[in-house]
Amino acid sequence: MGILEDQRMGILAAPPANFSFLGPVNYNRSAIGVFLGPYPPTVTYVNSRWIRRGVIRVHQSGIYYLFECYDAYDLDGIIRQHSTVFEGRIINLRRYHRSFIPQEINFDTTRLWVRVQGLPLLYLTREWANQILSHVGFIEEYEQVGVGLPMHANIRVRMLVDTSQLLIPGCFVPVEGDRVVWAFFRHEGAFKFNKSCGYIGHHSERCKVKKDVSSCKPRCRLAALERRGMRVLYGPGQQAYYTNYVKGLPDIFRYRNPKVNLIRPSEPEVIPFMDRNGREIRIYQETARGVVARNDTTLFRKEVLILMRLKKRVMVGEL
Ligand SMILES: [Zn+2]
User: Fold this and answer.
1) Which InterPro entries match (predicted)?
2) Surrounding residues of ion ligand 1, Cβ less than 5 A
3) Distance of CA 261 from the midpoint of ligand 1 (Å)
């Protein structure tokens, strides 16, 4: 076989004579965003909902939207936001740099509020939220503070969800005896959702996912969870897997077009997380000064586990 298989060869392109790293756009002061699903809104629309300090210019190239911020704090605000909604469409936002290749940026995680609906009051606790949502994504924030009953009769948490995967519409929760109840997961910001394919952002009439593919996918996803050691129950047949309960907010203008406040002060330094047993865990980071807790909420479960291991080592004095 040829050399090409194990070796890449090519000439080194010489930069054009007039090339400069300073392009027409200040890329290093920009955030880049991609909408979930096809047919995104127009550029003019996308720039109307920020509460901001300075000018934000929006550029579009294919599916990518670039938000060029004249004020650095606006940029920080957009990055902190992680995801937002324009005209009922979710966009995931990331920091951009002039050397970044858009196709290599991971836009899979979406930050959204999820409400768990259909539980007895006794179950409206952080501990149950952790148990119920462990396979859905990573919990960043609980609406409920302190002990006692929540303000509304359901669990509401802010999560990072992998929206490149099929949505999980709910799960079974054991109640007394051998009874189980179905808890609905209601996703705030999911206005466009296709019940036959299971993806946020997809439109029922214009979905390109083939019917036979989409019908077996939920089963595959559950089978994967089963392999990870979770118990899967199968309810009575002829019941639709997805219902309108997937959508968490009424489809009205105010919710479809939320204002995004980029001026609000930054989030607290340390966001506590609860592990499965209700103990507080923190995300740790190695720095020159040792190990400090950090406020980077874009981490996922696997990374947290690694960091927890790191914390253990810290406690036994290895670091
Ligand atoms: Zn679809």
Assistant:
1) At4g02000-like (IPR040256)
2) 194, 197, 199, 202, 207, 209
3) 31
Which one-letter amino acid corresponds to residue 126? R
> What's the average model confidence in pLDDT over 228-256?
87
Kindly report the pTM of this predicted structure: 0.77
Specify whether 117 is located in the same domain as 241.
yes
Q: Give residue 279 CA to ligand 1 midpoint distance, Å.
A: 39
- Residue keyed to tokens 């009953």: 149
For the chain, count helices (H), then strands (E): 6, 16
CA atoms within 13 A on the CB side of 239: 7
Distance 167 CA to ligand 1 centre (A): 11
Does 123 share its domain with 194? Answer: yes
User: In angstroms, rounded to a whole number, what is the distance separating the alpha carbons of residues 90 and 38?
Assistant: 11
- CA–centroid distance, residue 84 to ligand 1 (Å): 20
Residues 43-65 have a mean pLDDT of: 88
Question: What's the 221 CA to ligand 1 centre distance in angstroms?
Answer: 16
Q: 118 is in which domain, residue-wise? A: 109-255
